[in-house]
Design a protein that fits this description.
44% of the residues lie in helices and 16% in strands. It is an alpha+beta fold. A two-stranded parallel ribbon has the order 1-2. The chain is flat and about 30 Å long.
């Protein structure tokens, strides 16, 4: 992949384990990875106040 990629995950995600997100991040050049602490598959919703501005900034590039 050559498109800008933002990867966000919780540190205790049973559906997509964090180590798989870390592997994906290593495989996609120049990707960005955010791991939210104490959260599962809904980490972006649990941390919506932190995630929303990051997503907006990422999409604005």
């Amino acid at each position: 992949m050559t498109h800008p990629t933002l990867i966000a995950n919780g540190d205790n995600d049973r559906m997509v384990p964090s180590n798989l997100s870390e592997d994906l991040h290593r495989r996609i050049k120049d990707s960005e990875l955010i791991i939210y602490p104490d959260s599962g598959h809904g980490g972006i919703f649990q941390y919506h106040e932190e995630f929303a501005p990051v997503a907006v900034e990422f999409l604005a590039r």
